[in-house]
Amino acid sequence: MIHDADFQRVLHAFGLLWRGYRKVRKGAKRRLAALMQAQGVASVDDLLERCRHDAKLSEDVRRALAVSISRFFRDQKLWHVLERQVLPGIVGWSGKTVRIWSAGCARGEEVYSLKILWHEWAAAGAPLPKLELWATDFHCGLLEEARRGVYQRSSLKEVDAERQAAWFHGQTQGFFAVSDQLKEGILWRCHDMSIERPPSEGFHLVFLRNNLLTYYAPAVQRKAFAAVVDSLVEGGFLVLGRRERPPGGMWPLIPCAADSHLFRKVPFRSEFS
């Protein structure tokens, strides 16, 4: 097993935060150790040296360090606010197309949760604009799993029986698959928000939960976060994780009264304006 001090060195080399891994480091260390063994790498020193010259190995290390824990409708309070206040408001003023981005979507539970809400609205007869839904992650393997849409029962523990019956069908060995209807129209993209510009712009809602602001170093956070905020339309909403806050500095964002981890983009006003 890799010692914590060596693991911290790897995280630092890849622009990641030790603090963010405090609850998930055992799994990440196991994956990293397995990769090192498979590659015949004897020590962390050797690993970091090889990564300087081997882009494929470097990418494999990043994937080993990726954390993909999620569930459908994770954080019930947030989803109630989105369903009853935020999304109806966006539909009311967005125009012909609602543009949403799930940044760092991992296996897609968040994406399909949103599609369930959207289809339930449509089934209720609500006149809806077109939905343009982007789902991105740097880990292309996780995106392939998201496209397949097959999940363990534990991922559905916050999905009530009515929704399970409507949107999932059981498979062997306790797995569940999302309906084909939910899979339609999602723009899946392999995209690294820590170094790349957002995949599009003019978003009305961006999910940025439990990834950038939890696992990445401050310098990486600020640059990528600024790009995410820029991708929002004025009046658009940004969703962060329960333990996350915007990085230090001035941002054109205000917390929403209904949920302190939901922010709305406002016109920027400096202290000198």
TrEMBL record:
- CheR-type methyltransferase domain residues: 29-244
Q: Which SMART domains match?
A: MeTrc (SM00138)
Q: Which GO terms describe its biological process?
A: methylation
Q: Does the record carry Transferase as a key word? A: yes
Keywords, ordered alphabetically: Methyltransferase, Transferase
Is Methyltransferase among the key words of this record? Answer: yes
One annotated GO molecular function: S-adenosylmethionine-dependent methyltransferase activity
What name does the UniProt record give this protein? Chemotaxis protein methyltransferase CheR
- Which organism is this entry from? Desulfosoma caldarium
